Amino acid sequence: MNSTLLIERQGAVETWTMNDPATRNALSDAVVDGLLQACARAAQDASLRMVVLTGAGGAFCAGGSLGGFASLIGQPLQEGQTDPLLAMNRSFGDLLHALCALPQLLVCRVDGAAMGGGFGLVCCADHVVATARSVLGTPEVTLGLPPAQIAPFVWQRLGDSAARQCLLQGLSYTAAQALQVGLVNEVIEEGSEENNDVAWQATLSRLMRAAPGAVASTKQLLRQLRGPVPDLRDAAAQAFAQGLRSAEAAQGLAAFARRQPAPWTLSGKEAA
Questions:
Q1: Residue 235 half-sphere exposure, CB side, CA atoms within 13 Å?
Q2: Distances (CA, A) of 74 to 29, 47, 66, 71
Q3: Using CA atoms, how far apart are residues 225 and 264, in angstroms rounded to an integer?
Q4: Angle ∠(99,117,135) on CA atoms, nearest 5
Q5: What's the pTM value of the predicted model, to 2 decimals?
Q6: Which domains, ranges and CATH numbers included, belong to the chain?
Q7: 3-state class (DSSP) for residue 61
Q8: Which pLDDT tens digit goes with each residue over 138-183?
Q9: Helix, strand, or coil (residue 148)
Q10: Nearest to 117 by CA among 71, 160, 66, 175
Q11: Which parts of 19-133 are beta strand (E)?
């Protein structure tokens, strides 16, 4: 049993809860594998009408988990060696594509941080509900890393101009700002847990008015209309692996851990 991913079924709705509060539900191999298996099963389940993706412990998802790859940061690949980072990162790309291909309504329920890879998960959803305290961002470039696998999904969700701003500047959005740019569809204002549950149930009731067969057919038509998300999984995995092994990543992640500016950061006067 995968304890880092909790799956609860209520009628025709499944809730998939990323459950690793200690890491703010970072995307470990176990979480990614669990979600991939859940997607494969859901794709064949005609009785399932909606998937709700959320996170435990006051966070949605802090992004990628380097886990056992910490020792590879800033370390060049040895000649003739197959880079383990490639398969790990491509697996996350597989997950993003699988989420977008679900025939059911995919709803992200965001509370707290949705950063990096977590931001990418949000971009796969058909509907996003966020609490007012939520923060969504793509800090990768400020750490010396490319936001590789999520880039095409952010681009398709936000459009070219907003995606460039977001990805190339490492921006973060409040829930209200995310609503303005179209990343979030609905914001639940601060209130009691009971009031939040009432607002959530109202959203569920509205979404469940849509017939499941019509939803699946419409999602397929929309994919044909806009075209599939560009499949950059292999190129993205290569870019991420090279980035993580670079001196920039080593410097950026070390500065982040010390809560100091990265060495390439310029003040206003230096940049002028």
A1: 6
A2: 21, 48, 13, 8
A3: 42
A4: 110
A5: 0.94
A6: 5-191+210-258 (3.90.226.10)
A7: strand
A8: 999 999 999 999 999 999 999 999 999 999 999 999 999 999 999 9
A9: coil
A10: 66
A11: 50-55, 105-110, 113-115, 127-131
